[in-house]
Amino acid sequence: MATKNLTASAVAALTYDPDGPSRQVLWDRKVTGLGVRVMPSNKTAYVISYRLHKRTRLMHLGRVGDFKNIGQAREAAQEHLRGVRREKADPIAARRRERTAGTLKQMFEIWLTHIAKKRTARTHTDYSGYVDSYLNPQIGSHRPADLTRGEARRLHTKLTDKHGTVTANRVMQALRAAYNWTVKQDSDTLPATFPNPTFGLEWNREKSRKEFTQPAELPAVVREIQTESNPWHRGYLWLTLLTGARGKELVTLKWDDVGLDAGEILFRATKNHEDFRLKLSIAAIDVLREIPRTKNEYVFPPQRSDGGPHMTRPRNAWRGVLKRAGIGRNVTLHDLRRSAGVLLSSHGYTAEQIAKQLNHKSNVTAKIYIQIADDMQQRMADTLGTAADPKSLSQPRK
User: Fold this and answer.
1) Domain tally, the chain
2) How far apart are CA 53 and CA 196, in angstroms?
3) Residues 359, 272: contact at Cβ < 8 Å?
4) Could you tell me the CA-to-CA distances from 151 to 104, 138, 140 in Å, in that order?
5) Does 123 reside within a domain?
6) Per-residue burial over 322-349, b = 16 or more CB atoms within 10 Å of its CB, e = otherwise
């Protein structure tokens, strides 16, 4: 059909020519690519024509009656056509994604399925908790493409005020990971150029946890660990202190990966996703020799209430040790691992050496152990300085 300045009267006068081509469009001279298509039923609709990736495409913009006037149709057409020219964005593909994207809740389900296959069970549990407890209740009904940076920022602030700085950071980091994976892997939901709504978010400052078992407390802790009646709980606590191993690395340790004669163990389920071979002290070897063997392949078989293939971390047993040792602080099992790092630091080992022994990917965390040891040494020096203060020594005894 012809090209002319579209007017209300010209559009209203359009009729379908049965002897003409199957696709009949009156094109606009003001906005190149905008036209009005007339159907065999004589119904009319605005369309846009554009060329992308060496292919010409025609997209239905909307029925003529859906727009207040031609000016509004021109604005809508120009917005799509600018995207084609500047960003090489295909509006037909975008519309298809919009129809099939579903909600954020559905996006999270797809992402968590991937996490369950590719990441550790602990990671999947953590992410699932963030999604179920925080993300779905707040934004689960949103469509993925509709979440803005402003909404993400306000959600982070809300979570911070209600649940604390660390929880807010972890939830938003999960949201960031979900979007990053979806953009890379699931082109039907979001285009590859989609900006992650968490981009530029100002994360809360987090204080590094520096709790550990003090050197003066170790004799009592060691004594109470030895009185623990459950041999697997006792062995676990001893090995945590003697090796500094992570909790999951210990509970998933199998007898096939224990070499008592060679004096080493092989951790396979590590945080770094790499096998890690650890040399053992004579004391650690003795602990392993004392742990009863069962038909179960794991060094720490499941206990009565564990309900899994191996034992879970004996937190209650550890709390009992702390209580009997007279330690009222909240020292966790992971803090017992930190105690091993501080002990190594206090004996002069470097951050690099400690990181290798405790299987850290970098020595950043190990430097915290050195800082703690330095602070502890400073406190001891200050105590000695106060005790040896000449002024205090010169005071007459009462």
Assistant:
1) 3
2) 25
3) yes
4) 14, 10, 13
5) yes
6) beebebeeebbbebbbbbbbbbbbbeeb
d(CA 140, CA 137): 6
CA distance 316 to 249: 19
Q: Which residue's entry shows tokens 């990671």?
A: 123
Residues 369, 354 contacting (CB under 8 angstroms): yes
Q: Which of 197-211, 279-293, 327-341 is modeled with the greatest confidence?
A: 279-293
Residues sharing a CB contact under 8 Å with residue 76, sequence separation 6 or more, in sequence order: 46, 61, 62, 67
Question: Do 217 and 325 contact (CB within 8 A), yes or no?
Answer: yes
Residue 199 lies inside a defined structural domain of this protein: no
The whole-angstrom separation of Cα 261 and Cα 254 is 16
Residue type, 185: Q
Task: Name every residue whose Cβ is closer than 8 Å to that of residue 149 and which is 6 or more positions away in sequence.
Answer: 195, 197, 198, 199, 200, 201
- Given this model, what pLDDT does residue 332 score? 81
At 267-312, the pLDDT tens digits run 886 766 778 788 888 888 999 999 999 999 999 999 877 778 899 8
Instruction: Report angle CA 126, 129, 135 to the nearest 5 degrees.
Output: 120
Indicate the angle between helix axes 231-243 and 333-346, nearest 10 degrees.
40
Strand order in the sheet with 264-267: 258-259, 264-267, 276-279
- The structure tokens listed for 298 are 């794991």
Establish if 390 belongs to a structural domain.
Answer: no
Cα–Cα distance between 82 and 105 in angstroms, integer? 32
Query: Do 231 and 339 reside in the same domain of the chain?
Result: yes
Give the range of the structural domain holding residue 12, as residue numbers without chain letter: 3-100
R_g over Cα of the chain: 33
Could you write out the DSSP letters of every residue in 296-314?
SSBSS---TTT-SSSPPP-
Give the pLDDT score at 295: 92
* Domain-embedded: residue 261: yes
CA 139, CA 104: separation in Å to the nearest integer? 7
Query: What are 263's two structure tokens?
Result: 């004096």
